[in-house]
Amino acid sequence: HGTGTPENDKMEYNSLRSVFGEAIDAIPISSNKSMIGHTLIAAGGVEAVFSLMTIMTNTLLPTTNYDMPDPAIPLDVVPNESRQAWVDTVLSNSFGFGGQNVCAVFSAEPA
């Protein structure tokens, strides 16, 4: 979801760690909101497009303006520059005010 607020970042980190365990340390994470801002009701759709483009181009989008990492949140946030990586699956989290929450998984079609 990546709003970049201290409390929300901790909550998101803890939820990802509860799902992926220690494996989360090796999973790249990025936030498109750092580049385009919060598009409110369109955020989930925009993030779905970015997720599919990540799979199609094998390019991890950067979390821009990431200058001061929180030592309590040891994630690989793909800081400030895109990165090439083989990507076949993307998890997109969208959390709305009032409890409208969606986690969508996008995967490449098996060859």
UniProtKB/TrEMBL annotation:
Stretches assigned to coiled coil: none
Pfam family, one: Ketoacyl-synt_C
This protein's UniProt keywords: Transferase
CC terms in the record's Gene Ontology section: cytosol
Claim: Amino-acid biosynthesis is one of the keywords in the record: no
Gene Ontology terms: biological process: fatty acid biosynthetic process
One GO MF term: 3-oxoacyl-[acyl-carrier-protein] synthase activity
Domain Ketosynthase family 3 (KS3): 1-108
PANTHER family: 3-OXOACYL-[ACYL-CARRIER-PROTEIN] SYNTHASE, MITOCHONDRIAL, POLYKETIDE SYNTHASE-RELATED
Entry protein name: Ketosynthase family 3 (KS3) domain-containing protein
Species annotation: marine sediment metagenome
